[in-house]
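Let's see one such:

===
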Amino acid sequence: MTVFYDHTEDGTKPEHYEGGDLRIYKADADSSITMVTHRDHVDTGSALQTRKTLKALAGKLYYEGAKRGETNLRGKAMLAESLTMSSESLKIEDLLFDKTTGQGGIKNYRGRQIVEGSWDGVDDEKDHWGEKGIRSGSTYTLNENVTLAVERTDDPVKVLNDETVMISAASCGAKGSAAASR
């Protein structure tokens, strides 16, 4: 099943969508749904705005079976060129359903990286850590013990050798320095 939703403004808030919520009470095994909206007023060059639009669209769907532990319905939220069946897809995310409310959502990639850099999703990460009060500019203030996982593929990470990554006090606002081993 494909459901088309028109939106006003940039589609990042539920009230931007002209139709009401869609509630599915029961789904047969292997059922699927695609929620579609158009790109009008959406800055498709911004990963953050595109994700917010898809999240708001996904939030229009409620799968009541999810509250009972059913997993028969799977779906996608899609940003398309226009609201026609033949329209080209610009961005698609898998739907997830909240087990308490049944409300649709999309996978949350936020909170996976605290370093700066240039990669898809960096704006979303900065927004996430800013909302939590941890990030201000390029400074992260961690007031509790945390575990940091460093990957060699991260652009801004400097690896001293295959086993050790040095974190300097100056770069993280801490006293002293730390070395993390793999």
Q: What stands out?
A: Residues 47-58 form the longest helix (12 residues). Confidence is low (pLDDT under 50) at residues 154-182.
